[in-house]
Design goal:
Number of helices: 12
Number of domains: 2
CATH architecture of the largest domain: 3-Layer(bba) Sandwich
Largest sheet: 7 strands, mixed
CATH topology of the largest domain: FAD/NAD(P)-binding domain
CATH superfamily of the largest domain: FAD/NAD(P)-binding domain
Bound molecules: flavin-adenine dinucleotide
Strand content: 15-25%
Radius of gyration: 22 Å
Helix content: 25-40%
CATH class of the largest domain: Alpha Beta
Structural class: alpha+beta
Strand order of the largest sheet: 5-4-16-17-18-13-19
Distance between the termini: 56 Å
Length: 443
């Protein structure tokens, strides 16, 4: 069997290293155009990434720190979201123990490269022609390569046709990125009730008049990204507010900022039986909950379980069952929809700023979710919210619990959510409870 991965960004290297590791029997081709830079952002992960990376590289925390400048991410600290609370925290569970990494987008690719065993082709791909059972890859020099399965990780689509759906309830579409070298203290102090909680590291998400700023701390630098809507605010408004923020934080900046436009979208069908779209070529959501890498892992593991495993037993590939293909596509479509509703909902109570952006963001969420074609998903979303409101706040339980039985290894949140929590996209019910109280949607 011949498999091709097209793309040399995070998604392409995740797919190529995963297949190299778990399916060494395939003839793997890794094709990318080195003259097209990868997007170069995407440094916040979710906990499952640790498990996956460990299987691929088997490197210790210290080795990863040296190679990829990682820091631990215990969750996201939200500041100025909603009007009730100055700050709230969205944890990884179990609270205080579950964590992911912040990781250098450049170095993770360099590291994964070492774990790819493939025929590398540095060429522009002009076209991918799929008939549902094989894919003809047309390369720039007019040569072709025919493969049994192609994974398309070429980044944002060049154009959008009827196979793409706009996730219009997300109110942002551009980022301005600044990087500052060498920040040592990444500690975040939070007050929860009368308890002071210290986190070594977390992503910060700070609401600002024109959107919000993320901070991602690595051991050698911190990245700051101002996420905003280019149809509402001008670059100079963003730069001015960014400067104001830096000044208040005591940060000096004299670098060259980078601008990234992004569409919030999903493909309707990510897989036609031979051509599978992953990463930014399949869907994109603004980075408020840093969902993209988790989604790439899900895509790569899903294709491995369903398709690659069965290919491994075949001499010659067969056409996949049409009804299973429909279910597969529907699953990923709903998965992205669910994530987008959760992310969009963060804007539902506005912020501490009464500005054009926040007025738009809040109203836009309620207005646009009504256009969601799958009404059952929306009903499900509201029922998850109802359940989350009735459930105890994970942090209250954690603090009460930890003062009595902290010595035991018992996992409070697992206990708390057992039997109740079901995954909604990447999240369980405690996430809805924390964010719902945090933004003031639940009181
Ligand atoms: C501001 C911002 C912040 C983000 N933060 C996070 C975060 O914290 N966490 C997270 O998980 N995600 C985040 N993301 C999402 C992030 O973009 C993705 O995680 C990830 O980088 C996926 O990129 P990709 O590999 O799909 O595409 P890209 O990085 O764009 O790579 C595309 C690759 O395809 C190749 N290519 C393109 N066209 C061709 C062609 N015709 N022929 C051959 N090769 C081609 C290019 O050379 C390139 O190597 C963020 C995104 C933005 C915009």
């Amino acid at each position: 069997m011949k498999i091709a991965v097209i793309g040399g960004g995070t998604a392409g290297y995740i797919a190529a290293s995963h297949i190299s590791k778990h399916f060494p029997q395939f003839d793997l081709y890794h094709i990318y155009d080195s003259t097209i830079p990868s997007i170069g952002v995407g440094e916040g992960t979710t906990p499952y990434f640790l498990t996956w990376l460990d299987k691929i590289t088997n490197l210790s925390y210290e080795q990863l720190e040296k190679r990829c400048h990682i820091t631990r991410k215990f969750g996201i600290s939200f500041e100025n979201w909603g009007v009730e609370h100055e700050k709230f925290f969205h944890h990884f569970y179990p609270v205080g123990q579950g964590y992911a990494y912040h990781i250098s987008a450049v170095e993770i690719v360099n590291l994964l490269k070492e774990h790819v065993c493939a025929t590398e082709i540095d060429s522009n791909v002009i076209d991918l022609q799929s008939n549902g059972i094989s894919v003809k890859i047309i390369l720039a020099n007019n040569t072709n390569l025919e493969v049994d399965l192609a994974i398309d990780a070429r980044g944002f689509p060049q154009s959008f046709d009827e196979n793409y759906i706009k996730l219009s309830w997300i109110p942002t579409n551009r980022a301005l990125i600044r990087q500052v070298p060498g920040i040592d203290d990444h500690t975040i102090d939070l007050k929860i009730g009368s308890h002071a909680v210290k986190y070594q590291t977390a992503t910060r998400s700070i609401a600002r008049p024109h959107g919000w700023i993320f901070t991602i701390p690595l051991t050698n630098r911190t990245s700051y990204g101002y996420i905003y809507n280019r149809d509402i605010s001008s670059v100079s408004e963003i730069e001015t507010d960014f400067d104001k923020f830096f000044q208040a934080e005591g940060i000096t900046y004299n670098g060259q900022a980078k601008q990234v436009n992004f569409p919030n979208f999903t493909v309707r069908n990510c897989f036609d039986g031979a051509l599978f779209k992953i990463g930014n070529s399949a869907s994109f959501l603004e980075p408020l909950e840093a969902t993209a890498i988790g989604c790439i892992l899900k895509q790569v593991e899903a294709i491995s379980h369903w398709v690659l495993r069965s290919f491994a037993k075949l001499e010659k590939r067969e056409r996949l069952d049409e009804s299973q293909l429909i279910i597969f596509n529907q699953y990923f479509l709903n998965y992205v929809y669910k994530m987008s509703l959760f992310v969009g909902w963060h804007y539902a109570m506005g912020s501490r700023f009464n500005t054009k952006f926040w007025e738009f963001a809040e109203a836009n969420f309620y207005q646009e979710i009504e256009n969601l074609e799958n009404k059952t998903l929306l009903e499900k979303f509201y029922s998850v919210l109802e359940l989350a409101q009735r459930s105890p706040h994970p942090i209250d339980n954690f603090l009460e619990f930890s003062s009595t039985v902290a010595e035991t290894e018992t996992n409070i949140v697992t206990a708390l959510i057992k039997g109740v929590a079901k995954l909604y996209g990447q999240w369980t019910q405690p996430s809805f409870t924390e964010v719902g109280y945090g933004i003031g949607y639940f009181s």
